[in-house]
User: Fold this.
Amino acid sequence: MSPVHRVVVISTPPVSMFNIAIPEMLFSKVEIDGAPGYETLFCTAEPGPVRTSSGLDVHIPHGLDVIDTADTVIIAGAGSREEPDPRILAALRRAAADGKRIASICTGAFALAEAGLLDGRAATTYWTYTGELGDRYPCVDLQKDVLFVQDGTVLTSSGYAAGIDLCLHIIRTDYGAAVANGVARLTLVAPVRPGGQTQFTDTPLPPERGVSFACTRAWAMQHLDEPLTLTDLARNADVSVRTLSRRFHAETGLSPLQWLLHQRIERARELLETTTLPMDRVARASGLGTADSMRQHIQRRLGVTPSAYRASFSRLTATPVAAATVRSGPGRVRA
Assistant:
């Protein structure tokens, strides 16, 4: 049995209760062969009561020394974007020097930037503060309109629910799509969303036509193995193709066909992990056409072949090994 993966969450006052709750909520749901997949610990510069942005105190039991035992370090967003305790900055630098995976939720990116860990890296934060982050840290390759972004071993996310997307991405990286999607179902949150999905839209849905396409997306998920077109989706939603395209993007940050492709790749990943179906049948069942077409899509998205992905993440054999990377550039991952 592989050792449990230890996640250490750093809290900087006034910490967001929601942001520190996200990692524990999601990682605690991961179970591999009957054993926990993660252990989540919480630390701060001075263990004990830590003030939250809500005005309440939470008890943080560990000091920063626990970071030395971590596999992944997450710094949660705080109500303040000022320079954090120098001891926290030093701990983050040591963790980076040790090669640990480091992530931030929401304004936690400011601490990573102050520690110098985002210099020359792609990074994001909550959209309200992207301008401030860019002005204060011009060496950051700021991604203003994404949910999360990974550049090498450093991940950053936008605010609120994007922290959930970030943690699901980490789970998917460590244990595969089937485990991550299972956690999403257990916690009643959206399935894993691509990190490049936009944080928000400037144009809200018109109030008189503000009907969600959730039912159409659910219908499409049940018909991924069929050659769905924009016309099929528009017919199901009872709107024109033009209206579908405009409002679908407003709701999801993706075009309908981009969304379909993402869901089909996710379906293929689940089938590769949980079945022994031949490649051509996996391709047909996920709507990716032929085995060659599936290979092209998965290799472009994940950087590995379907066979290599199955060898790493199959739930029918040994515990999965280190993750396949999802590359959008040298050393970068954008799921």
The first strand starts at residue 5 and ends at 10. Residues 202-252+254-329 form a domain with the Arc Repressor Mutant, subunit A fold (CATH 1.10.10.60).
